UniProtKB/TrEMBL annotation:
Name of the featured protein: ArsR/SmtB family transcription factor
Domain HTH arsR-type, chain residue ranges per copy: 14-94
Lineage of the species this protein comes from: Bacteria, Bacillati, Actinomycetota, Actinomycetes, Kitasatosporales
Bias (Acidic residues): 189-198
Keyword Lipoprotein: no
Organism: Streptomyces fildesensis
Keywords: DNA-binding, Transcription, Transcription regulation
Region annotated Disordered, chain positions: 187-237
Signal peptide: none
Keyword field contains Cytoplasm: no
Pfam families: HTH_20
InterPro entries, per database record: ArsR-like_HTH, HTH_ArsR_DNA-bd_dom, HTH_MetalResp_TranReg, WH-like_DNA-bd_sf, WH_DNA-bd_sf
Length: 237
């Protein structure tokens, strides 16, 4: 059984700005995908100099987003890993005037990077895993409390498939997952996509392997362009 993941609330503007830096997002994503690394290995992977990488690591460590990986270093080497936690931002209605543009810009960059990475995956992934790219576009009719419950159930499902390396079944690999939901604009309510017969999920025909809704923690190819996992913008609102 997977361990219960710690929830880290990010209500401090300084911590949010530290997390939102694009290079630090790349560092966190690399650590999440490939495991512990030194500033030198991160610099090579992300095309940075070691001084810049060390500075970004110190800032991430200061706010609790990374931590030293025990039992990994040799000599004076410092190995870092992403601190295991589900990051939660304040709900949009609770974000200050200074915080909201930082969150919005971080989300904009994250979604753009995710789309680019998805397109790269479609180009490069071959063999049986070429079928491991299900997606779904649809709508649900819920109250706000029900949407929050739906969201927490999704997070619980994702965490169920986060496993240690020694617990992975044969053939498991790392799969990136993303979740996005938002209220339909008022002028679209008359044309509810739920009534459209074309509103179906491509996942319905996908093979039953670990796929976009079911991540398995394992080593995979270099996907350093992605943004960090396990980040949620508070409760859905």
């Amino acid at each position: 059984m997977p361990k219960q993941r710690r929830i880290k609330e990010i209500g401090d503007l300084g911590a949010l700005k530290a997390l939102a830096h694009p290079r630090r997002q790349q560092i966190l994503e690399h650590l999440a995908l490939h495991g512990p690394a030194t500033s030198a290995t991160l610099a090579r992977a992300l095309d940075l100099n070691t001084g810049a990488t060390s500075y970004h690591l110190r800032e991430l460590d200061r706010h609790g987003f990374v931590e030293e990986a025990e039992g990994t270093g040799r000599g004076r080497e410092r190995w870092w890993r992403a601190a295991p936690a589900d990051l939660r931002f304040p709900q949009r209605s609770e974000q200050s005037d200074e915080m909201r543009p930082v969150v919005d810009e971080m989300n904009r960059l994250a979604f753009a990077a995710d789309l680019a990475l998805f397109e790269r995956s479609q180009r490069e992934i071959e063999g049986v895993w070429a079928d491991g790219q299900p997606y779904s576009r649809g709508s649900i009719q819920v109250t706000l409390p029900e949407l929050r419950e739906f969201f927490e159930e999704y997070i619980a499902l994702v965490n169920r498939y986060k496993r240690a390396d020694d617990e992975l079944p044969e053939g498991a690999r790392n799969v990136l997952t993303r979740f996005l939901a938002f209220p339909a604009p008022a002028d679209d309510m008359a044309n509810d996509p739920a009534d459209d017969p074309a509103d179906v999920s491509a996942a319905e025909s996908a093979v039953h392997q670990p796929a976009d809704g079911l991540p398995a923690e394992a080593k995979t190819e270099d996907l350093t362009e992605a943004t960090t996992d396990d980040t949620t913008n508070g409760d859905p609102s």
